[in-house]
């Protein structure tokens, strides 16, 4: 599986104008790669995750392409996207565990989902049991209602449901943020296990928590105000970041490997620009200690060393 996203632009239409949430996003995801997607709230992480699978009614595809194994992913064509979901690309959305239908037992929900995808539940029953066991759930969860499960159990159910048809690409959006620290780690480890067992091939793991993603991801991509600013191996992003924003993001971490949730971004003065009328050029320039005249132009995302991309005039 190879994902290739090229100059993707997706805006939200609002009464006040277009919100430029993704403004020319380009990156590749290799077969087997687990990529953490990080950045401050509102930088476009969720929009990017959704754009790979389902545009909601306010999202507009302005330009750019997405290719999965060389084939165009027709994101603006809702009908053409249906066969791809769950089979090729699957999304665990933010708050997925709270969105489980409270009036349906888990087993029934899974069967409905399978039938809607043209799969007979009986054909997959053994595999379903194996996967529930793998994530530490007893099969009697199938007979229970969501309200009878803890948050961590619901999150594992959602993980199993989303990956049951072995999608090539899984997008996991903040799947651990509502969980306690030890459950977070267990959920993240299960997702890595899913990749190792080839239930999924590659994954985009959207998170605020660089400490968590550092331990599980192969690469980390950092977004800022609708742009990609840097992508590299997880250890390079944490230990030798080159973009000034990534450097500030990392230095604001209390301690690498720590999972303290609060206050980690307080070290960066100022706030990201609004995306209704975003500034031209580098969008970080107003907060950047290194900004100079050239930053009035948008810096291209360039490969500064093998496997390490950055969009900054000072690093090129
Ligand atoms: N339905 C919407 N209508 C208008 N603007 C939106 C909508 N959803 C998101 N946005 C805007 O798009 C931008 C990107 O939002 P997005 O949710 O993708 O960011 P994020 O990085 O995922 O944030 P968070 O970490 O808080 O989830 C933000 O400026 C946000 O205000």
Describe what this molecule looks like in 3D.
The structure is a single chain. The chain is α/β, with parallel strands linked by helices and about 325 residues long. It has one domain (about 5-310): Rossmann fold (3-Layer(aba) Sandwich). The chain is about 25% helix and about 25% strand. It has helices spanning about 45-50, 80, 105-115, 120-135, 150-165, 180-195, 210-215, 235-240, 245-250, and strands at about 5-15, 15-30, 35-40, 60-70, 70, 90, 170-175, 200-205, 220-225, 225-235, 300-305, 310. The strands form two sheets. An eight-stranded mixed β-sheet has the order 6-7-8-3-9-10-12-11, with helices on both faces. A four-stranded antiparallel β-sheet has the order 2-1-4-5, covered by helices on one side. A hairpin with a 2-residue loop joins β1 and β2 (about 15-30). It is globular and about 65 Å long. The protein starts with a strand and ends in a 6-residue tail after the last strand. The protein binds adenosine-5'-triphosphate. Adenosine-5'-triphosphate binds next to β1, β2 and α1.
Large-scale geometry: globular
Number of strands: 12
CATH superfamily: P-loop containing nucleotide triphosphate hydrolases
Count of individual helical segments = 9
* Main sheet specs: 8 strands, mixed
**Beta-strand content:** 15-25%
* Secondary-structure class: alpha/beta
Strand order of the largest sheet: 6-7-8-3-9-10-12-11
Count of structural domains? 1
Terminal CA distance: 30 Å
Please give the CATH class: Alpha Beta
Helix content: 25-40%
Query: Unreliable segments (pLDDT under 50, ≥5 consecutive)?
Result: none
Which architecture would the CATH scheme give at its second level? 3-Layer(aba) Sandwich
**Secondary-structure element order, N to C:** EEEHEEHEHHHEHEHEEHHEE
- Based on CA atoms alone, the radius of gyration comes out at 20 Å
**CATH topology group:** Rossmann fold
Q: Look at the structure and give the mean pLDDT.
A: 93
Q: What small molecules does the structure contain?
A: adenosine-5'-triphosphate
Organism: Nocardiopsis flavescens
InterPro entries: AAA+_ATPase (IPR003593), ABC_transporter-like_ATP-bd (IPR003439), ABC_transporter-like_CS (IPR017871), Oligopep_ABC_C (IPR013563), P-loop_NTPase (IPR027417)
GO molecular function, one term: ATP binding
Protein name: Peptide/nickel transport system ATP-binding protein
């Amino acid at each position: 599986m190879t994902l290739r996203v090229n100059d993707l632009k997706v805006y939200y239409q609002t009464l006040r104008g277009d919100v430029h949430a993704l403004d020319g996003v380009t990156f590749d995801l290799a077969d087997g790669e687990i990529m953490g997607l990080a950045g401050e709230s509102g930088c476009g992480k969720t929009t990017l995750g959704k754009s790979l699978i389902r545009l909601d009614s306010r999202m507009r595809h302005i330009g750019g392409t997405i290719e999965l194994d060389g084939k165009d992913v027709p994101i603006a064509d809702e009908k053409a996207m249906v066969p791809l979901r769950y089979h090729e690309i699957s999304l665990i959305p933010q708050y997925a565990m709270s969105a489980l239908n409270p009036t349906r037992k888990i087993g029934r929900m899974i069967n409905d989902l399978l039938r809607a995808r043209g799969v007979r539940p009986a054909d997959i029953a053994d595999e379903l049991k194996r996967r529930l066991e793998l994530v530490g759930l007893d099969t009697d969860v199938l007979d229970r209602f969501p309200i009878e499960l803890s948050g961590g159990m619901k999150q594992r159910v959602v993980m199993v449901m989303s990956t049951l048809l072995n999608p090539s690409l899984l997008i996991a959006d903040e799947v651990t943020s509502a969980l306690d620290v030890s459950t977070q780690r267990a959920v993240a480890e299960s997702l890595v296990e899913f990749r190792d067992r080839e239930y999924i091939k590659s994954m985009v793991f959207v998170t605020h928590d660089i400490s968590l993603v550092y331990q599980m991801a192969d690469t980390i991509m950092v977004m800022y105000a609708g742009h990609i600013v840097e992508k590299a191996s997880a250890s390079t992003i944490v230990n030798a970041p080159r973009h000034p924003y990534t450097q500030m993001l990392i230095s604001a971490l209390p301690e690498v490997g720590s999972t303290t949730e609060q206050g980690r971004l307080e070290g960066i003065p100022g706030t990201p620009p609004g995306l209704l009328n975003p500034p031209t050029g580098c969008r970080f320039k107003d907060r950047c200690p290194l900004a100079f005249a050239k930053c009035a132009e948008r810096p291209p995302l360039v490969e500064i060393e093998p496997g390490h991309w950055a969009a900054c005039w000072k690093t090129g």
